[in-house]
Amino acid sequence: MDLTEKINKIDIEEFQQDLIRWFEAEQRDLPWRKDSDPYKVWVSEIMLQQTRVDTVIPYYNRFLEKFPTIESFAEADEESVLKIWEGLGYYSRARNLHSAIKEVVATYGGKVPDQKEEILKLKGVGPYTAGAVLSIAYGKPEPAVDGNVMRVLSRILLITEDIAVPAARKTFEEGARTLMFEPNPSYFNQALMELGALVCTPTSPSCLLCPVQKHCSAFEKGVQDELPVKTRKKNTRHDKLAAIVLQNEKGEFLIRKRPAEGLLANLWEFPSLKMQPVLEPHETLQDFLMTEYSIDVEVAPVSFTTVDHVFTHLKWTIHAFHGKVAGARLEENERVRFVTEKEMNELAFPVSHQKIWQAHKIHVEYEKEKAKGRI
């Protein structure tokens, strides 16, 4: 049975009414639903990619406090953009959004394009983001197909195509477009997303509470737990790293900026490298700092904390050490320098290195209390 036949089995008007009525009654009170400003909708949709709603809410509120208008965000420097995004992850989202917003201000006078062909030209804007902005902000009947929506439609329409295969998206977009409630595309798209988030969940979907259960082919056949079809993720690579919180005679800390391209681009971090099996970690760090920066250091032989951080296909286990500069002066530049604690707090760091910094401060306080005989 092809997609058209599957759709024809559904009373589309009744499906739309059941879905919209449920959304009107049950939708969560979320800050980006306060109005349909296209700039705010766009920011929220970029933040919500691969990130939980509860995590996004405080970031979204802080972001709009700092950049309340599209022009204020366009004028921001990259350092302040990365700082406000710090901890949210997937930093390329922030850079792409910043680049695209600057183009909107320069090319479109600060008005987010309301035509699909135009908005898709902007950096970082794909079919989902375009559909979300066009439907929610402008009321255009464009599908917005994300993971939640694909899961819902795979069950409603019994679609067995592998959602991990990019070509499958066309099938889901066709299904969403055919079912679209054109009088209110905003509510229709948001309702599908909300249904996937609250009811039609990845595991143990709450089918008995589902407002569109009677329209669901997967529930009818009892195969809802088998959908959507998705191939397994690639194996996660595990890198073991050694990092150093290194202070000079002034009590300043050595930090470096990551490369301008690739993972965590342009974020600041403590110097780190992969651990070498033939050397102790503190020896590896000493050799690295002498070779890379021509500075002689004393490194504590025992790490003060270990941090695990998981990316999509990569896991870091970072053993962090304290160190003191023993000799020679670092030739500082825009990508490696010593900074004060106050400056540290103004720069953007990856979550893993934020954890190292917090552990360092706790360790320092502990040592102070220990020296006073209170521990």
Describe the structure.
- The structure is a single chain.
- By secondary structure, the chain is an alpha+beta fold.
- The protein has 2 domains: 7-226, Endonuclease III, domain 1 (Orthogonal Bundle), CATH 1.10.340; 237-371, Nucleoside Triphosphate Pyrophosphohydrolase.
- The protein is 46% helix and 13% strand.
- It contains 16 helices and 8 strands.
- The strands form 2 sheets. Strands 1, 4, 5, 6 and 7 form a 5-stranded mixed beta sheet that branches. Strands 3-2-8 form a 3-stranded antiparallel beta sheet.
- A hairpin with a 3-residue loop joins strand 6 and strand 7.
- Helix 3 packs across helix 4.
- The mean pLDDT is 94.
Topology:
Blueprint: H1 3-8, H2 12-26, H3 38-48, H4 53-66, H5 70-74, H6 78-85, H7 92-108, H8 116-119, H9 127-138, H10 147-156, H11 168-179, H12 185-198, H13 217-221, E1 237-247, E2 253-257, E3 268-269, E4 272-274, H14 281-293, E5 296-299, E6 305-310, E7 314-327, E8 336-339, H15 341-344, H16 351-371
Parallel strand pairs: 1-7
Antiparallel strand pairs: 1-4, 2-3, 2-8, 5-7, 6-7
Helix pairs in contact: 2-12, 3-4, 3-9, 9-12, 10-11, 10-12
